[in-house]
Write a structure and sequence with these properties.
140 residues
Length: 140
């Protein structure tokens, strides 16, 4: 397996790593506050984001062609952003320990990063063009 170092250094790679970082901070804060309902959602999204990052880093999306992986990534980013906005509002409004408050704020940051990821992916997705076509229509 070869590693795609260009993806890790790209804007999308840095964005995925930033999402994982903010999700990890939220996870640690929710775990310190012992809020299992928030821990479960954060662990799930952390696992999905890390699997997508590994998929793109090791170029597995080119071998597993039975899914259109960018579209799955777009749906994940959209649903996770909405879910984390709601989860963070609940965590911030019902906090009893500081860990819940900080975890909710980190969840808001994760939701913003997920929204940015959604916008970047949705802008670059190629549904009706050949995979090599430029999204802006300009010639390189």
């Amino acid at each position: 397996m070869e590693v795609d170092a260009a993806f890790i250094k790209s804007r999308r790679g840095i964005l995925k790593a930033s999402e994982m970082g903010t999700l990890l901070v939220a996870l640690v804060c929710f775990a310190a506050a012992s809020r299992p309902e928030f821990i479960t959602a954060t662990v799930l999204e952390f696992a999905i984001t890390s699997l997508l990052l590994l998929l793109y880093t090791f170029k597995l999306h080119k071998r597993l062609t039975f899914f259109f992986w960018p579209l799955i990534d777009v749906f994940n980013s959209a649903f996770a952003a909405v879910y984390f906005i709601v989860l963070s509002i609940l965590a911030v409004t019902t906090y009893t320990l500081t860990g819940s408050l900080v975890g909710g704020i980190a969840g808001f940051f994760a939701a913003v990063l997920l929204c940015v990821d959604f916008c970047v992916l949705f802008k670059n997705i190629t549904l009706n063009r050949p995979r090599g076509a430029n999204p802006s229509g300009d010639t390189p």
